[in-house]
Amino acid sequence: MNRKSMIVSLLLLIGLPLVALHSRNADAAKKEPHADYAQMQIKECTDCHRGAGVTPNHGADWSREHRLMAEKAGSNCADCHQQSFCLDCHVGGGIEPDLSKSISRRGDYMPRTHLADFISLHPIKANDNPQNCYRCHDAAYCFDCHSRMQKNTMNIKSHTRTQAGQQFIFTEEHAREARRNLQSCQTCHPEGNVCLPCHSAVTGFRVNPHPRNWSGGKLQSKGGDRSCRVCH
Amino acid sequence: MKAKLVVLIAAIGVLCIPPRSIAVEMKLGSSTQYLWYNDLITEKDEDAVAQYLRLNVAKLDSAGKATITGYGRATRVFSTGEDVEGRLYYFYLNYRDLVQDVLDVKLGRHFVAIPSGSGLIDGATLDFKGIGPMGLKLLGGRDVKFVAERNEVTGEKDRMLGASLYTDAVRMTHLEASYMQRNNDGDVSRELVGAAFSTYLPGSVSVYADTKYDVLTEATAELLAGVKFSPLEKLTLKGEYYQSFPTFDATSIYSVFAVNEYTEMLVKAEYLLGNAYRISLGYAREDFNDDKDADLYEAGISARPSANFLFDVSYSVRNGYSGDLDGLRLNGTYTIGMNSVSAGMDFADYRRDSMAESEIAKKYWIGAEHKFRQNVSISARAENNENVNFARNYQGVVALNANF
Fold first, then answer.
1. What is the DSSP letter of A77?
2. Which one of A72, A90, A184 makes the best mutation probe of the B interface by having the most chain B beta carbons within 10 Å?
3. pTM to 2 decimals?
4. How do residues B68-117 score in pLDDT, each as one tens digit?
5. Is A8 within 8 Å of chain B by CB?
6. How far apart are CA A154 and CA B177, in angstroms?
7. Residue B136, Cβ neighbours under 10 Å: how many?
């Protein structure tokens, strides 16, 4: 953890609760059950929330905001929604007839966050917060498509097309691009075999790929050193 | 393993049935669907049927604390000739207040979310919600995965374990710290510590923060801090700082590579114009390090100008690293009695970094729903896509929906 992250985290996790403690009556308050309000319109919810000092939710940015509310212990999502409401987006189901949802190439429903021709747009949208994709998809999901594509049909800035497939251009930009967007490398090269001729510790050019001050101790001790043994 | 799970859950269900007769309440939801679409990768037209079922059994005990709920899907893709494939999204016993005001239990396949991560598990969640001013949630089980398959692909040794310690002792304030570990084929693949904080301050102000620390790579995987407030009755403003650090499974070689931090500053405003219109504006500055950044502007209107007509329009512009994108979306629905008609379009003008020319993607769709009764309906949707891959690409779905 770098210094900036450490300072911000400490401020958030220690400072803000103290502010809250000093600004509030310390009487514990039991959470209001919301099951009785499940059929209400959001506007009616907002009217009541405003009176109670709660900032409005379920607004225009709710697809981004809901994660923080849903992951809280004791969240009251279940008072109005069943888990199918979560999983129809996160895992691709569709028991509720939502006519505004498109279908993916696999026949699963896609959340409304996916614009037209998302297959072509996703290299751009995946960079608007790279963690977003991984909330519903894992690396194997990317590889499932990328492994089936003909390698010389892809438009990748750092690769040139050849008759046999594609070839990587080894420029200074390669390292920068990999640091910024390493997840995209994994989509076509899940085992990282293409990295080894240069980055292996025992053969080839032996270029060290680790970050500065790298120890890797916990990866080795807890992760079963599978990733270490690929190069060492 | 699956058979064992089903037997276990069935046994739990039977045990929950009390010895004397109680009016068990059962609800069943069903959607039978015919879908047609095109698989861009295989370049084949596909058609399939899907049967969704959702079951809720409540009032299993006299106090109405125990419920069993399940949701699953069976699909058959005609064009590939594959067998019927199935997904069990969840099937679990939910026992609220197993110990009054102290313990809630979920047992079976269910979705879990704590600040350090989320997932679908075959296992148990124990929520000890009344340990003085604190609560403790413990969860664990098989880490269920579907990936891109219609069937489950969970490995025998894929596990997820988690714990979360939280308190709501201070009025309108939530503080939570959690831990999550994922095992892939017996090895620890992820180990995360998470923390979340939120409070509502006087003056309709909320302050919130959320972080995930990756124990194995010793890096802050995510950090979010934000303030949201309503200076006017119908105006809500929000500012957020977000940073993330790409992290990988410890079993992947990519977990040892140097990566850059991503940071984002975001401001958003939302205004309610009368009772019918909601206007939103947003701006985000994205920083990818090494002098690469992007700007994202968003605007939208969501409206219900009359009781039976609603529509929304959204427009976004993104410029910078990895590509430029202008996106417009329009959706609307008009309802007359038991019938409704919906339509919409997407328009995207984009240029990826790797492309010399910009491309345009368009999507048009129309849909309709007829309700035979309040709980039985038929709906249909047809969509056409015009883009770099297809001059015309039609897809759609017809669904018969019922809730009893």
1. G
2. A72
3. 0.87
4. 999 999 999 988 777 899 999 999 999 999 998 899 999 999 999 999 99
5. yes
6. 43
7. 16
Q: Is the pLDDT of residue B172 over 60?
A: yes
Closest alpha carbon to A62 in A111, A95, A96, A119:
A111
The C-alpha atoms of residue A45 and residue B312 are separated, in whole angstroms, by: 20
Evaluate whether B121 touches B109 at the Cβ level (below 8 Å).
Answer: yes
Contact B397 A103 (CB under 8 A): yes
Evaluate whether B78 touches B52 at the Cβ level (below 8 Å).
no
Contacts of B146 in chain A (CB under 8 A): 91-92
Greatest Cα pair distance in chain A: 72
Residues 6+ apart with CB under 8 A from B11: none
Contact A223 B401 (CB under 8 A): no
Angle CA B88–B90–B95, to nearest 5: 150
Cα separation of B291 and B320, whole Å?
Answer: 11
At residue A22 the predicted structure's pLDDT band, cuts being 50, 70 and 90, is very low
8 Å CB contact of B361 and A129: no
The ipTM of this complex is: 0.87
Backbone angles phi, psi at A66, to 5 degrees: -65, -25
Q: Exposed (0-12), middle (13-18) or buried (19+): which is B56, by Cβ within 10 Å?
A: middle
Phi, psi of B255 (to 5 degrees): -70, -15
Q: What is the CA radius of gyration of chain B?
A: 25
Q: What are phi and psi of A47, to 5 degrees?
A: -60, -45
CB contact under 8 A, A73 and B377: no
Token digits of residue A26 = 């310390």
Mean pLDDT within A110-115: 89
Contact criterion met (CB below 8 Å) for A120 and B388? yes
CA B249, distance to chain mean position in Å, is 21
Q: Which two tokens stand for residue B381?
A: 């949707």
Task: Work out the minimum CA distance from B329 to partner chain A, whole angstroms.
Answer: 8
Distance (Å, whole) CA A199 – CA B359: 37
The pLDDT of residue B309: 96
Lowest mean pLDDT among A126-140, A178-192, B6-20, B386-400: B6-20
Strand locations in chain A, DSSP E? 159-161, 166-168
* pLDDT reading at A14 higher than 90: no
Distance from CA of A169 to the nearest CA of B (A): 13
Contact call for residues B63 and B18 (beta carbons, < 8 A): no
Segment B298-320 shows an average pLDDT of 96
What string of DSSP letters covers B199-232? EEETTTEEEEEEEEEETTTTEEEEEEEEEEEEEE
Question: What average pLDDT does the segment B334-347 reach?
Answer: 96
Rounded to 5 degrees, what are φ and ψ at A190? -60, -30
